[in-house]
Amino acid sequence: MNFSGDVLQHEERAIFRLRTMYSGFGYIHYRMNRFEEYDLYVRNKNFLASDDIITFNDASGRLLALRPDVTLSIVKNTKDEETPRKLYYNENVYRPSGTAHEFKERMQVGLEHIGAIDLSAMAEVIVLADRSLATIGARHSLGISHLGFLCGVLDSQPLTERQRSGILACISEKNVPELRRICAEGGLCAEFEDGLARLASLYGTFPEVLDTLKTLSVSDKTDAAVEELAGIYARAAELGVSGRLYLDFSIVNDMSYYSGLIFQGYVDGIPAAVLSGGRYDHLMRRFGKKSGAIGFAVYLDLLERLEEEHRPDAGGNAPRQMLNIALPKGRLGEDVYEVFEKIGYGCPAIREPGRKLVFENPEVGVRYFWVKPSDVAIYVERGAADIGVAGKDILLEYAPDVYELADLGIGRCRMAVAAQK
Questions:
Q1: pLDDT (tens digit per residue) in 89-112
Q2: What are the φ/ψ torsions at residue 81 (nearest 5 degrees)?
Q3: What is the dihedral of CA 335, 340, 345, 351, to 10 degrees?
Q4: Residue 113 and residue 124: Cα distance in Å, rounded?
Q5: Model-level pTM greater than 0.85?
């Protein structure tokens, strides 16, 4: 059957291209039921993106759940054998949508390589992740980390569980000042503190930073991780990987499930990871299986924004790229706007009297939104705004899934506590 690709949405075109590519590498289409017993997810909640799951009882009284994850279903139903099983899927999952407290049906396309995992298998998955991102958007990047290296560094010191989790959180946020504070309060040695600070700030292509990573190695375990990363990159280069692979140890995941290589992918125009994956041997062990496993998922629902931003106007012209900035209403927002105005992102219309909430200056490519202070983080998290400025109290109270880029040092306040004499 012949039809024009013009009738397909970006998401649908991506599905066809990705499935064709995975099949070309020997991956077989895997189909599954959209329901699973709720107990599967209760026992593996830390592996899920959220604890919130849609549940219901079937006719026999069993408690079932709408599938919030694909990998768990595949691991549960896959036989434990050394012969590699190469599977791909395109399935819907059902997850809460950020801070909105509402569920959303999300389309995922992904693959899993299960069995004896060697350097060639890991390199192949990395290459397919890189090419998947290229299929979605020409400008992309694939950030790569290694939990074996992180774990080895942390194991070199007698850390409490609280120190360990705090350090991992700081590395994931690239928050070097807080990282140094934790080390200082814990009485950790200066050499360990400096090494963590360098690791948190480390970012670049493999040729640029691999030698630096070697200088941060502290044990046989971290040496092995560096050697594995170098081997994966060498094999991936032989297969024809792009130059958009970056070492970035701010990519952190649950060590009780993931082991070794982990990665996240981004494309220009989408302010969130559109691809996520890694090696999850520890998850296999939780199911009593000896096989290794590595895979990734591509979140195609995020492509909606990419399609909207590249949709031509009525005259057929490509839209101009605009920087969308969410500002909190009130005095804080006015102070913040002055900061942006001073660095060349002014918008004269914002100072005009009226009830408008959206202001644009196409000449400099900026668009401002006036929003409630408590909604700034939601605008950024959902992708309606590229960046926003909010008080620290908002970030602490709502814990949105956003990056805290900088503290502007404005809007400070004092808290006074009064008590009866």
A1: 998 888 886 554 578 888 889 999
A2: -150, 155
A3: 0
A4: 10
A5: no
